[in-house]
Design brief:
The chain is mostly beta strands and 414 residues long. The chain is built from three helices and 20 strands. Strands 1-2-8-5 form a four-stranded antiparallel sheet, with helices on one face. It has a four-stranded antiparallel sheet with strand order 11-14-17-16. Strand 3 and strand 4 form a beta hairpin. It is elongated.
Length: 414
């Protein structure tokens, strides 16, 4: 089910489908549609007679909202009510709402402490303006645009789509599952990167240039020892890597921060580690979590009556490095059988002769192999592993129960 609507059951404040009245004229008052050849698009709708008392609910109705709520088993789960899509262009989503009030209203209930056209405000802060003008209705403009991420409701990241792990005796972890939040509100930005691995102290032999008559020389030999000529040279290999950034938007503060903490617990736990399990179709060990860029904004439409609706919404840009170099062979196999891949593999130069040249025919030469301090493949590699999917798992309190999943104490910057 979606996030809780705080105005449900209050007909004086809740905005519903039946309250929507689109402005109609000989020419569309909304301003029309705009589309570009790169696939982008924008559109607007104009509305009239929006009840003034329902303005907050009206904005939330179009733009959506999100909350972290207790899941009933000691954890937290993210609930989202999605923004509305355009009735004609379903790929365009409500991105902004502009309203202008009209028709001053002097017919205000006694609870509003009417003073002329002024409505009294119960101050939440000493800086709150004590009065504001009362109106009956408002005109509205709703702007729609193409968003760079998928919009899925809660069912789209749970059930068959959720992240499910069986108990892992190797790491002593029980079975667990949680919604796959990276499937929605998440932008994916890959970027290729090339590095060069250079090893000194080696010799390269000339493999071409032979059969020539004097005075033309023969680089490939044979020399006086009957071997190809050689020269000291570093051995290099191009390392093709990929930087991957996944940016998830509109995360409530309670999704990232445990009650009373000022650093994101799951992010710190994953920092500098490689994926323990296959994630984004990348095999274990090939994704290194390098860091995160965090930014937050105050949730201006927050309903103070909903205790688990955070005051802040965060954008998290998760940074990964993907590396899956060519691995070598075990047991004289004809195809690579090294199953431990990725960032914990080391380069193997291969066997060399007395002159320092590589031996011909070595299938494992210039390949990569998993390495540990002891040589035991069951021991951990240099870089620890972690279930990196937990970067998108809401934090929980130490005791396994959630006292206040959206406690609004957090850092002003990370």
């Amino acid at each position: 089910m979606p996030a809780t609507n705080p105005f449900t059951g209050d007909p004086d404040r809740d905005f519903t489908d039946s309250d929507w009245k689109q402005a109609v004229a000989d020419v569309d008052p909304g301003g029309g549609d705009n589309f570009s050849s790169d696939g982008g698009g924008e559109s607007t709708l104009a509305g009239v007679k929006v009840p003034f008392n329902k303005l907050q609910a009206f904005h939330r109705y179009w733009l959506g909202y999100q909350q972290c709520v207790a899941d009933g088993v000691g954890g937290v789960v993210l609930k989202r009510t999605l923004p509305k899509t355009h009735p004609l262009w379903p790929e365009l989503t409500a991105d902004y709402v502009h309203t202008v009030a009209y028709k001053p209203d002097a017919n205000v209930s006694q609870e509003s402490a009417l003073l002329g056209l002024k409505r009294k405000v119960t101050p939440a802060l000493s800086t709150t303006v004590p009065y504001f003008a009362g109106y009956k209705s408002a005109r509205a403009t709703i702007g729609f645009k193409d968003l760079p991420y998928e919009l899925l409701d809660d069912s789209g990241v749970s059930g068959v789509n959720q992240w499910q792990r069986d108990g892992d005796t190797k790491y002593g972890t029980p079975s667990y599952s949680f919604p796959a939040e990276w499937l929605r509100f998440t932008e994916i930005d890959p970027a290729p990167r090339i590095e060069i691995l250079s090893l000194d102290g080696f010799t390269l032999c000339y493999a071409d240039g032979k059969g020539n008559s004097s005075p033309t020389t023969n680089p490939a030999g044979p020399n006086t020892q009957g071997q190809p000529n050689s020269t000291p040279a570093p051995v290099g290999q191009l390392l093709v890597k990929a930087d991957l950034a996944l940016t998830t938007s509109k995360l409530p503060q309670g999704f990232l921060f445990k009650s009373g903490e000022v650093l994101p617990r799951n992010i710190l736990a994953a920092l500098g580690k490689v994926n323990r399990y296959t994630l984004f179709n990348k095999v274990p060990g090939t994704l290194l979590f390098c860091g995160v860029e965090l930014s937050r904004r105050r949730f201006s439409l927050r309903a103070s009556s909903v205790i688990n609706e955070s005051k802040y919404l965060w954008k998290a840009r998760y940074l990964f490095s993907f590396f899956d170099p060519p691995t070598g062979f075990n047991n004289d196999e004809t195809t690579s059988t090294t199953q431990l891949r990725g960032h914990n593999n080391l380069f193997w130069i291969g066997a060399r002769n007395d002159a320092g040249a590589l031996s011909s025919g070595d299938k494992n030469s210039m390949k990569w192999f998993f390495a540990t301090a002891s040589g035991n493949p069951n021991d951990p590699g240099l870089i620890p592993t972690f279930d990196l999917a937990q970067l998108w798992k809401p934090v929980t309190d130490d005791a396994g129960t959630t006292v206040n999943p959206c406690y609004d104490v957090g850092p002003t910057s990370i």
